[in-house]
Design brief:
This protein has 575 residues and is mainly beta. It has a domain of 206 residues. Helices cover 0% and strands 51% of the residues. It has no helices and 43 strands. Strands 21, 23, 24, 26, 27, 28, 29, 30, 31, 32 and 33 form an 11-stranded mixed sheet that branches. It is elongated, with a radius of gyration of 26 Å. It starts with a strand and ends with a strand.
Amino acid sequence: MTLDKDSLGGVWVTWTQVAGNSTSGYTNSVYVNYSANGGASWRSPFVLPVASPHPAPDDISAVVAFGNNQIGVMWSDHLANTVWWATHADGKAPDSNWKLQPALRGKGQSDDHLNLKTLQTDTSGRVFAAVKTSLNDYSSDKTLPQLVLLVFKPGTGAFTQSTISVAGDCVSRPQILLDTQNNLVHAFQTAPPTSVSGCQWSGIPGAIYEKTASMDNPVFGSGRGTPVIQSASASKMNDVTTTKQSVNSSTGIVILATDNSAKRYWYSDRPLGSGTPAPAAPKASFTANPTSGTAPLNVAFTDTSTGAPTSWAWDFGDGGTSTAQNPTHSYAAAGTYTAKLTATNSGGSSSASTAITVTSGTTPPPAGAGITVVGSSTTYSGTAVGKAVLTVPAGTAAGDVLVASIAGDLNSTVTPPAGWTPIVSGLSVGSGSRLFSYYRVAAAGDPASPSWTLNTAVKWGGGMTAYRGVDNAKPLDSSVVTAVDTSWTKSSLTVGSVTTATNGAMLIGAIACDCASPVFTAPAAWTERWEAAGGQTAEHADAVQAAAGASGTATWTFSAVRAAAAWRAALKPAD
């Protein structure tokens, strides 16, 4: 049971209550009760009057007062694979006027641990929720989110999502504190003690760990964090709890945990000093000079990333790598290579890529070399926004053909910029994520960062690739073929064959999943041009087909089971 007081002095409580027996079956219900006079007297408890108040028997609920005039109730629902959020305006009849929406939805996204907090002085009414997923029950992928931070912004009416810890961290039972002194979210979790290696199961008792992130851009570091309650004489520390109120330098931080083995309560009490919030992730970009020439070709790469990156990881596409900020690389053999930069700081990372074309100088270019890749860009928004803004790849010129794809969450729809032609518009993954792809012949004066308007604020991921040597009058050389799998049982997706009409056509395709981390491997003999690394994951890839005709199928593979959607088509070479 949790409780909170609304702006009129009324006290609200919520809990889940199971009825029934092993013969007739069990029904769990989300209950609410209300006292208008601060707890002196209570009305009769009632089941929350919304569409989905009956979760699985072990699901739980929590209540929070927020935004100076609202009450919110959140509960886990294994049966619907959803974490639900219901809100109610202060002063309205307690057993009516509730608004319901999913806070988190998808297979494996719900478990029976959650914690709600809000800032009492935040007039915007942000609500922070730490929830546990059950993705580890459906996949052995240790990089999937185990504990997630959800942030509700009443101004948008939507939740944003960031990962606190992953399945490989072996964590459970999350609690959060909001630190107004340093603008930080403090996340606490149970995990094995530092003296123990391995993981018998998620959340095995041992020690209590702490991680922090900026409230404005909650990106948590990797790992379990710092142990804050741990003892060699108490090996089963568990069930951490915190104050409901936010903290500052006057209050310090106090947390309490139990040890079922030693039969004791343990606590941590420490002062709270000032600190610096984590920065936003950088936006990667770079220039390459030259981008084509005869082997051996020496190319100078210059980092132009914004957002104060602190490290750089270069992949030159021929097996060579570098961690210098502005490296030089020599390409020894003829071919087309994708040079990729990943720029990183403590707030996260992003990537950018471009094509380097190297010829031998003595042999003619291979079939299909009429179409070349100018470059690619990728970006994403891990917070819900109303526009998807992509970047035209560096080096794009008038007459090049741009191919852009965006994966959006929550069954969103998209309005493209003027002059963009749809390839697929809203190819649905089935659980909220949709794939949108478009092409355009670049013209002088085009904006460097065109934006797609979303019908609602959502997380998204996308990118753009520029191609040179494409027929401007009829860019596509084939029909568009699509494939969708919503079973959540497969780690690959096969897209059917396309038939090209012209020798040297460029096969192109994109894929998206209902997920927020890179998981894709392009089909055999295809080259990945970009992969969005957050928000919603999408990838674009291509391959030259020398002779006109049927291409055969193409199969994308994933690092874990996913629901996914993809398409294929071909670009027509210019005469």
